[in-house]
Amino acid sequence: MDYSKITVIGLGLIGGSLAWALKRAGNVGEVYGVDIDDGAIDYAIREHIIDVGSKDLRDAVNNSDVVVIATYVGIIPKIAKSLASILSPKTTVTDVGSVKAKVVMEIENLLPKDVSFVGGHPISGTERSGIFHASSELFKGKKCILTPTVNTDDQSLSRVRKLWECIGAKVYTMNPEAHDRVFAYVSHLPHTVAYALLNSIAPEGWTPDILDFAGGGLKDFTRIGESSPEMWSDIFMANRENVLAAIEDFKNEIEKIRVTIEKGNLARLRDILSNAASFKKDFI
Amino acid sequence: MDYSKITVIGLGLIGGSLAWALKRAGNVGEVYGVDIDDGAIDYAIREHIIDVGSKDLRDAVNNSDVVVIATYVGIIPKIAKSLASILSPKTTVTDVGSVKAKVVMEIENLLPKDVSFVGGHPISGTERSGIFHASSELFKGKKCILTPTVNTDDQSLSRVRKLWECIGAKVYTMNPEAHDRVFAYVSHLPHTVAYALLNSIAPEGWTPDILDFAGGGLKDFTRIGESSPEMWSDIFMANRENVLAAIEDFKNEIEKIRVTIEKGNLARLRDILSNAASFKKDFI
User: Fold this and answer.
1) Minimal Cα–Cα distance from A126 to chain B, Å?
2) Mind telling me how many Å the CA of B276 is from chain A's nearest CA?
């Protein structure tokens, strides 16, 4: 056994899938799951996703090797605060939040000195949410970013790294600030844009026609638009400065296209679109 | 034989696939293909996509029942102008362009009185282009919009309708102006937004990181961004007024999200995102 006990707090899509994958990996003594929702705990026990379910945080984290906070980003610091006084010494705490810098700093300040925190972000979300969509294979072949800081001890980092590797994820490390800038562009900006796009169509009253003819390009955006508004509003707020900067950059680019169309400058428009297309070629 | 001769001008993805599907449908005497590119004609003959290939427009359209203009939107009126003096009486002309109002009006003014034009738009493009990606199945089960006007004669409309139906497409009719407004929102706006999104990332110098972590949401946009810049700049220009109006609507929506994030108003942000998510639910 590499781990005698691991506790997952928050049995949603990510937390549920992680608990399940760890249980199946066979190198964890007991997997504990915590959730405020009885239905999620019952389901997790019935489907053998966890060994023990609990609503009592103290019991659930007692003597755990690793405690994984798998809630929405907005309440991670609150959970960490509740954990501060009840964690056993030498426990490693990690999370799965999509935003790191602010969260990592807050948690490092909250936790006692004998507990180490390692920020984590598995790149494996889908537009779905909830434990009913959990899969023990969710992280297989997927990337997981860990964001150690000067305060992270090496043993905790390798403990968390191993945890993800043993369920098939490829682990990368980045500093929390770099992580948040990159994800503002590759993930948070596309989501704000998709939400804005759907909203710019919905109030137009075009819905009946659009229902019929969405094959024309809209469909690519709607998977993102279906994502949880609660989760994404938390993420945008937690990564506020970077998301605002990314939106500004984007607004400049859409305005560049708008002005060029308005002026009827076809050659310039082709150049602008070609730049995007060449980026795409590099990208694959 | 429902048609003794059909001519397709422009052997790209759409023109090539259409010629091929018509040839396979078995109710067309001869399918002629016209292209300025010898390679496209050679390939089309070799692969039995067309019966006869030609660079001579006059020969190719002589005695055709239906002439299909399958070039980029920007040069459709130019082609129609070349056709005006060489079409046989009773020929029906149609096109496959993604923008209709301006093109339909221009062509109706260009063509002689004994030739009828029916605007068409099959909703079946992909990010690919060129005859090498053509498929005789491309239109099977797909929608095709025809945009008759007060000048369209019924016989020509049913000729073109039948042409699409015999290769498996579902035909809808709309007036050209309504078509262009709908597609400004469901297709042209998503494309401008995808191009702007890729451009807002490319110059940031984030590319290496982004290459690794695009799973976070960007990927959904890149299929669109890979589309032909030449084709799309033509489309945006041909549907200029509607595209500009759609971009304005979109800019208001992204600004609404930006300001709400800036103000830190989480409850309001959730409402804005929920509106988009509810639209998505109706939409499927």
Assistant:
1) 9
2) 5
